[in-house]
Amino acid sequence: MPTLDEELFPSTPGKFKIEQRSYGINRQFYRFFASTSTMFLWALFLIALTVSYLSFQSFVDSGTRYLSASWGGLQWEKQVRTSAEISRSGGMSVLVTGASGFVGTHVSLALKRRGDGVVGLDNFNNYYDPSLKKARKALVNRHGVFVIEGDINDARLLDKLFDIVAFTHVMHLAAQAGVRYAMENPHSYVHSNIAGLVTLLEACKSANPQPSIVWASSSSVYGLNEKVPFSELDRTDQPASLYAATKKAGEEITHTYNHIYGLSITGLRFFTVYGPWGRPDMAYFSFTRNILQGKPITVYRGKNEVDLARDFTYIDDIVKGCLGSLDTSGKSTGSGGKKKGPAPYRIFNLGNTSPVTVPALVSILEEHLKTPAKKNIVDMPGNGDVPFTHANISSARIEFGYKPTTDLQTGLKKFVRWYLSYYGYEHGTPVN
Known about the structure:
Elements (H helix, E strand, L loop, with lengths): L3 H5 L12 H48 L5 H10 L9 E5 L4 H12 L3 E6 L7 H13 L3 E4 L5 H10 L4 E4 L13 H21 L5 E5 L25 H20 L3 E6 L2 E2 L8 H10 L3 E6 L7 E2 L2 E2 H13 L6 E2 L2 E2 L5 E6 L5 E2 H12 L4 E6 L14 H7 L7 H15 L2 E2 L2 E2 L2
Parallel strand pairs: 1-2, 1-4, 2-3, 4-5, 5-6, 6-13, 7-10, 8-15
Antiparallel strand pairs: 9-14, 11-12, 16-17
Helix pairs in contact: 4-5, 4-10, 6-7, 7-8, 9-11, 11-13
Subcellular location: Golgi apparatus, Golgi stack membrane
InterPro entries: Epimerase_deHydtase (IPR001509), NAD(P)-bd_dom_sf (IPR036291)
GO molecular function, one term: UDP-glucuronate 4-epimerase activity
């Protein structure tokens, strides 16, 4: 005979019908708890499946990022080492950030030509035409400089570079440039000029040996200062733009790393650099383009209709200052991130000491382009620009013999010649 259990719960569902009410109630409870347990188990299964999928997806994403990285591998490491090789007695191995930027390109070429080892780093952002940066990269590549596409905020990349090469110096030129663009995209300035600087300094302080660092500050730090010419001893606590504020912050941050970690650091306050391979966002560059295309240019003027004036500094003179700063930078004193003694901390103005008004600049361009400009003269808006700049360069002259030699007339002539050649103009007419 079947047991009571077998009668109540037959192996084949629906084999018989339970007639008693109490049994019916018990069966309903059983079905309820059975279905609840099943749902709970299914929920656990789905949760586990979801977690597994997300973990796998994260692994795939990480792997994809690693595989798609523009750096790494044996061939890449070989290129880095080859580019960093020193070919002169007493030479240096230099990591140049922003190596496909305007100043970075010229500094990289000058270092390589004299026999120093140079490795470049640039993120090729689209603040201005990336094709110009790619052309600069091709130029330095032809001279034996390997430029890595990467960001100074990538700590893993920086650590890898310092593992491969014992850089003696870092020339830090990577930055988000431009005064007016800061009003459109302020976060890019914090990302590059502050966070990026700290990431680089962290890599340098942990390197063994620690490199000496020369980096690009800006004449913009003088802000609303009205005393001329601008001296390194003048106040710099009244910035007129976010760009200037990030550069001032950079000076304070570098001082801290020098004080705590013994990094040798030199800051260079550039004054309106111009020349071949320059930045398209600069006034002299856009003026040239618009004059050739027959478009009007906007010329700003200051209060009381006073002409704006800038201490325009030709790129070759800036390069001399950069190399002089590297050559006299002194050594860092830290090891393993710990300071063992005081290290040099310096700041220098690099300018031409001969301010020229913007209308005078336009007149020189008209002369070299053999084309009159259509000018719209308007009052300067409150966009962070300052009415004038003028550098006192006595400190740089005393320290490493800095002496600019190119006046604006000569410098713009060289720029115009390059511009017409690069963009395919002949006597002001586009070449088909």
